[in-house]
Design brief:
about 450 residues, alpha/beta, Rossmann fold, Dihydrodipicolinate Reductase, domain 2, nine-stranded mixed sheet, six-stranded parallel sheet, disordered N terminus
């Protein structure tokens, strides 16, 4: 390597290390380095730890981001996940060093990578994320942070101690449509008036357990070393206690996080009903159905929020609905939902249409509402004001990954640092406890703080 090339690499490495050294300061003042001339759009070298379906989705989204270079992949399923992902990376011209043991990867890739995307099963997240941060690397970790709050807390503490960035994969936090709704509709326009009620769901069709090619099975000794009894458990870990947290964690966590964000507070209580009502309890230890109710305190009064997760029927898929005395916001990560409905007694929204906060309703919908002949006890369904912001064709995870990499460069603050991810973990893990307890459980404010 020429002296010039060595100097270029040292400059890039020095910059990335300097942003890491600032750590929490980046989240407070992300533009400081740019103003000082330290930030520049250099490549960020990344390793993927966990190459299953979620890891592949994150990798494919990251490959669309300029300046991101994959250097290594680590996964215990050599015959399938690891080979498939390394071939995929190679097709894009990225390096494909492969590992089974993450410790070996951290040792051999020392000084070659800047960040790690952690997409392993939940019960491995804390160990993997902490080891990566202690190795001097920034971490993007899929949610849930951990099955155990003590370990999730250790992740936040490791980020503070090492000065490394820790982004938790609640990707709606970086979705431009969600950001628009929060900043423009809720905070600036207060378009819903006094928020009183929230509803949400994630309904998914019944499905068979995940299988695997028999010739590609992981040896029993390797499975045991990494915490799995057999291939069936490895493939379906989300359903097993001690490995995953069940559908309320795997699915509901994304949306319940939005509840707290948009409401502006963490819940004061939760009660829930649920059970393994459909699947075999021997293979589905966590509940396949949960109906839950949260209570939130806000300066304007109590907000009550309902959330359900079903794994036996996909009707109306997944969405969040925020209701106030002047309007209703219906939003989903899916492009099919993103509307606001004005209550008939609320002030007109012409101002917000002119400002581009919402699009004007279709004339035929306005006419239909005006012409509706109803029972005296009914209120006419209001026309929909469409939300004008979309993802512009990007994969769901891409904006959140962009935010992570831009934070490494000192250009942005993290949209979901470990502290926020921890608050969601506290909220969601207690839902499973509420099902078990069969009664209302209270949250203490200090529970949400690290």
């Amino acid at each position: 390597m020429s002296d010039e090339k060595k100097n270029e690499r040292m400059d890039r490495r020095s910059f990335l290390r300097s942003t890491a050294a600032v750590g929490a300061g980046l989240a407070i003042a992300p533009r400081v380095l740019a103003q000082a001339g330290g930030a520049k759009p250099d490549d960020i070298n990344v390793a993927l730890l966990g190459a299953g379906q979620q890891g592949q989705a994150l990798m494919e989204a990251a490959l669309k981001i300029p300046g991101v270079r994959f250097k290594a992949v680590c996964d215990i399923w050599e015959a399938y996940n690891q080979r498939r992902i390394s071939r995929y990376m190679a097709r894009y011209g990225h390096e494909n060093n492969t590992y089974v043991d993450y410790k070996e990867m951290l040792d051999k890739e020392k000084g070659k990578i800047d960040a790690v995307i952690v997409a392993t099963p939940d019960f491995w997240h804390a160990e993997h994320a902490i080891a990566c941060m202690e190795a001097g690397l920034h971490v993007y970790c899929e949610k849930e942070m951990s099955n155990e709050l003590a370990k999730a807390k250790q992740m936040v503490e490791a980020s503070k101690r090492t000065g490394k960035l820790l982004q938790i994969g609640h990707q709606r936090r970086s979705n431009p449509r969600y950001i628009h709704c929060y900043e423009k509709l809720i905070k600036q326009a207060n378009i819903l008036g006094r928020m009183t009620t929230v509803n949400g769901q994630w309904n998914r069709s019944a499905s068979e357990d995940l299988g695997w090619p028999e010739k590609a099975a992981i040896p029993d000794d390797v499975l045991a070393k990494y915490g799995f009894k057999n291939m069936a458990q490895f493939r379906n870990w989300r359903w097993y206690k001690g490995l995953g947290g069940g559908p309320i964690v795997d699915l509901g966590s994304h949306q319940i996080d939005i509840y707290s964000w948009f409401i502006g507070s963490n819940p004061r209580s939760v009660m829930a009903s649920g059970g393994t009502d459909y699947y075999d309890k021997a293979t589905h230890e966590w509940y396949d159905t949960i109906l839950s109710v949260f209570e939130y305190d806000t300066p304007k009064g109590v907000v009550r929020a309902f959330y359900q997760v079903l794994t036996t029927n996909s009707a109306q898929a997944y969405y969040e609905q925020f209701m106030g005395n002047e309007g209703t916001l219906v939003i989903s990560e899916s492009a099919s939902r993103g509307q606001v409905y004005r209550e008939p007694t609320a002030p007109e929204w012409d101002k917000w249409v002119k400002l581009g906060f919402v699009n004007e309703p279709k004339k035929e919908e306005v006419k239909a509402a005006a012409d509706a002949v109803l029972d005296v006890r009914e209120t006419a369904a209001p026309p929909a004001y469409e939300i004008p912001v979309t993802m512009e064709g990007k994969p769901y995870h891409q904006p959140h990954l962009e935010n992570f990499f831009n934070a490494i460069r000192g250009k942005e603050k993290l949209n979901c640092p470990g502290e926020i991810g921890y608050e969601c973990a506290v909220t969601v893990l207690k839902v499973n406890e509420a099902v078990e307890a069969a009664c209302k459980l209270e949250f203490k404010p200090e529970e949400f703080h690290v």
